[in-house]
Amino acid sequence: MISTLGRLGKVEIAQEVFLRSQKAGFGNNVYAYSALVSAYGRSGRCSEALKVFQSMKKAGCKPNLITYNTIIDACGKGGVDLKKALEIFDEMQREGVEPDRITFNSLIAVCSRGSLWEESQRVFSEMQRRGIEQDIFTYNTLIDAVCKGGQMDLAANIMMSMQHKSITPNVVTYSTMIDGYGKLGRFEEAISLYHQMKDAGIRPDRVSYNTLVDIYAKLGRFEEALSTCKDMERAGLKADVVTYNALIDAYGKQGKHEDAASLFAKMKGEGLVPNVLTYSAIINAYSKGGMHREAKQVFEEFKSLGLKPDVVLYSALVDSYCKCGLVDDAVEMLQEMMQAGIQPNIVTYNSLIDAYGRNNQGDTPEFLRESTINPVKDGPLVPESMNKVQHLQDNSGDHVNILAAVSVFHEMQQFGLKPNVVTFSAILNACSRCASLQEASVLLEEMRLFDSRVYGVAHGLLMGSRQHVWGEAEGLFDEIARMDYATGAAFYNALTDVLWHFGQREGAQKVVVAAQRRQVWDNPFWLSEQQFSLDLHLMSVGAAQAMIHVWLLDLRALLWEGRDLPHVLSILTGWGKHSKVAGDSTLKRAVESHMLEIGAPFHVGKYNEGRLVCAGHVVRAWLQDPRTLDLLILRDIVFPSDFPSQRVRQPEIRVLSFKELHMGDSPG
Q: What region holds the Smr domain (predicted)?
């Protein structure tokens, strides 16, 4: 009865039955105690399991092999560290109880849950040394531990070695491997293994399907993701919350917020209850679309259900406000977050850095002019009075937002958060809005202190030293290509923006070519017999302008090969009447202005103001004009070798702490 209740998760009732049996005089034995230990262990309540284990020994009941195996298994399920599990392992041997296969399987499971892949290898080796036979559970648990450690090549070798033991990999083996490849961004290997599993006659389970949906979605291959969902339904497995979360998250990151919202509604219509991850994903989708009101409505719905927001949810909402330039609202949400006892994470700080960078053009942001919110203890400090803000403005003038971005960056580090690629993208975005290269160097210097490689590439390209850093840049680009779409696209957009902004046009062109080769933007060149199209709507201003030159030079090369152009050529900026991209028309204006600058014969489409069009024969004539080539070839500005790139000279800017910045007791 105790065992059955434990398997059903009815631990309190199991405890009641145990106590009743003891009162009746027949519960004080190893079997009853072991069953109760197992009941607590199955529910992940390891501390209670350990208490029962200790009381059992005090009552004079000597634990047997089943008891020891059960308590070691409870350690794994309850997140107890390996040290405690090994202490119990040593104790059982001192008591003359020999460990068996289940004992070692449980120890490997403890390693797996702690992502201790090296320790799992040692436990496995000891198991082999003792001549204890391994089974499918042994290998699956070992592979899981190694995959969690990111050692996919080793995991693949372990999977191959199973055949020598006449142990056939099952759906759990394959699902674990596919998930491991997916988490490392090795998507093609994950997809290939999925097809190998099907070829081997192994029917995918829900985990396999959901992992594949997630991978296709992250790659932006939505048709294949949806096709996998249909395969899943045909196999008798309906899409669950995990499936919908993967799709909503991916649609949001690709800027397809309407599709994300449609899935969110469909999910609720099917009776599925959204969880915290679902709400975070849909809020993030609205954030990417600049739809802060919709994001706020979803957040209020979330709270009305009695759910508690976590750092991911709060960060998504902060990001939503930041992207719309509503820095005051972002800070208010940050205050609410910290008052709820939730510490901001790297995403929260990245959003603030990016917001200050975007505000660097024009007036001081409203947040720094008018905010009177008192700081939360140990949290991001905000100005306490307008007088202190005025003091800051008097000393540092137009540089106030750069100082704010740097100060947020410093505070992030004080909380022990390590900057990532998204942080550096935000800093590069801020650089592209600086009025001078000297000013931008203050921000770049911050990057150098934490990642000399990213700094070296960005600084080298910015200073026109491409030939010296391009090899390093290619290696960095390869690493970024293994990250998710949104992270990669943001980095390339930010890097090309800052290069274009400071006149390194050829460098910007080489960067977008490198991005195109790594398929960062989904099919920017669209070709058919009737039309050639360039899709810029996911690119930044600098990336879009550089890509225009790549495209036009490609068209010119086609003409020189003797091929003709189609009837219509078009350039999609994504800012038309039916656009899914939110925000102002900065990209559209920049593209139109640049086309006028180089004399390209494109004009705004009659029925779609977000598209520039031109007849093929007109473009052909323009490209064949000898004067056009010089307009299309981009060149870099070459700075003198002694150009002051490391420190701002006039006006001098000293990096302040966030507290100094807002307390006004330090020189500008």
A: 534-617
What does the DSSP assignment read for 39-79? HHHHTT-HHHHHHHHHHHHHTTPPP-HHHHHHHHHHHHHTT
Of 302, 283, 394, 263, nearest to 347 by C-alpha is: 283
Contact in structure between 375 and 369 (CB atoms under 8 Å) = no
Give residue for tokens 């028309």: 585
Q: What's the confidence (pLDDT) of residue 154?
A: 92
- Confidence at residue 359, expressed as pLDDT on a 0 to 100 scale: 62
Alpha-helical runs (H) found in 162-202: 171-183, 187-199
3-state DSSP of 594-644:
HHHHCCCCCEECCCCCCEEEEEHHHHHHHHHCHHHHHHHCCCCCCCCCCCC
Question: Is residue 649 predicted with pLDDT exceeding 50?
Answer: no
Q: Phi-psi bin for 342: left (phi > 0), alpha (psi -120 to 50), beta?
A: beta
- 520-572 pLDDT per residue, tens: 876 788 776 677 889 888 888 999 999 999 999 999 999 999 988 998 999 98
- Note the pTM of the prediction, 2 decimals: 0.56
Between CA 175 and CA 416 the distance in angstroms is 34
Nearest-angstrom CA–CA distance, 502 and 436: 8
Q: What angle do CA 254, 255, 258 make, to 5 degrees?
A: 120
Which residue has 């510490």 as its token pair? 343
Encoded amino acid at 663, one letter: M
Nearest 10 degrees: Cα torsion 471, 473, 478, 482: 160
φ, ψ dihedrals at 600, nearest 5°? -70, 135
What is the rounded distance in angstroms from the CA atom of residue 14 to the CA atom of residue 502? 71
- pLDDT for 660 beyond 80: no
| Average pLDDT along the chain | 80
Q: Is the pLDDT of residue 124 over 50?
A: yes
Q: Closest by alpha carbon to 492, among 472, 516, 526?
A: 516
Q: How far apart are the first and last CA of the chain?
A: 74
Look at residue 366 in the predicted model and tell me its pLDDT. 40
| Distances, alpha carbon 386 to alpha carbons 368, 370, 399, in Å | 8, 6, 17
